[in-house]
Design a protein that fits this description.
With 242 residues, the chain is α/β, with parallel strands linked by helices. The strands form two sheets. A six-stranded mixed β-sheet has the order 6-7-8-3-9-10, with helices on both faces. It has nine helices and ten strands. Helix 3 (96-106) runs parallel beside helix 5 (141-153) and helix 5 runs parallel beside helix 6 (171-186). It is 37% helix and 26% strand. It binds adenosine-5'-diphosphate and magnesium ion (MG). InterPro entries: AAA+_ATPase, ABC_ATPase_HisP-typ, ABC_transporter-like_ATP-bd, ABC_transporter-like_CS, MetN_ABC_transporter-like, P-loop_NTPase.
Length: 242
């Protein structure tokens, strides 16, 4: 069943078309990787799905509900979606535990003890249990990004959106974050991730979508799109980055 269905999305910034009649369907428990040159619209697409940007045309359905309807309560929708960005944006003045429990306590109105128990459980599972009381600047970049993912998971989202979550990391720290995403997939999490890591996209994605100028030029199984692309623009892009 489709958990996310984008139809005919159009987005302009100051007259520049950034998403151009874009369609994307993500079935439950599937992982879709968005690839494409810088500026092709990957982040804008993810931001539109999370209602951080309004679309100019088209519809976005989450679990059968049209969430692009302007009357929809965006906060209620975002509670079902976890998003993690390229630069780990943890609150520097809050401990790891407080970073993770802030939204569950404030937005979901969970009791502190319950939110903290869940946070500790999530931290233990990713090997960061000992860091519960650390502050972000006492963690490595990889640890910070793993905490950011845990924080997104603390809202028990149906869908995770990951926007180049390893791009800002030193190479030796990329692996631990990718391992975490691999584990999420094994747990059945539905994910859409923008990535420059083609090897990882090939391994973890059920489907790869190549975006160019706001359109899906080519999509399909990773071995097809990355291994035997049918479109000249996909081949050009892959030649440039590999
Ligand atoms: P990608 O993530 O694939 O690199 P983006 O979605 O960030 O691409 O950007 C797509 C295009 O939209 C780029 O040309 C970018 O400059 C433009 N863009 C993105 N966000 C804004 C914004 N808030 N205002 C104006 N232009 C934007
Ligand atoms: Mg981007």
């Amino acid at each position: 069943m489709a958990l996310l269905r984008c139809r005919g999305l159009r987005k302009e910034f100051a007259g520049q078309v950034v998403l151009d009649r874009l369609d994307l369907t993500v079935d439950e428990h599937r992982v879709v990787a968005l690839i494409g040159a810088s500026g092709s619209g990957k982040s804008t697409l993810l931001r539109c799905v999370n209602l951080l940007e309004e679309v100019d045309d088209g519809t976005i359905e989450l679990d059968g509900e049209d969430i692009s309807d302007p009357r929809v309560d965006a906060d209620r929708v975002r509670r079902r979606i976890g998003m993690v960005f390229q630069a780990y944006n943890l609150f520097p003045h809050l401990s790891v535990l407080d970073n993770i429990t802030l939204a569950p306590r404030r937005v979901h109105r969970r009791a502190r003890a319950e939110a903290e128990a869940q946070a500790r459980d999530l931290l233990d599972r990713v090997g960061l249990g000992a860091k519960a009381h650390a502050f972000p600047d006492g963690l490595s970049g990889g640890q910070q990004q793993r905490v950011a993912i845990v924080r997104a998971l603390a809202n028990s989202p149906r869908l995770m959106l990951l926007d180049e979550v390893t791009s800002a990391l030193d190479p030796e720290l990329v692996g631990e974050v990718l391992t975490m995403i691999r584990d999420l997939k094994a747990d059945g999490m539905t994910m859409v991730l923008a990535t420059h890591e083609m090897g990882f996209a090939r391994e973890v994605a059920d489907e790869v979508c190549f975006l160019d100028a706001g359109r899906v030029v080519e999509s399909g199984p990773p071995e097809q799109v990355l291994g035997e692309p049918t479109q000249a623009r996909t081949r050009q892009f892959l030649r440039r980055i590999i």
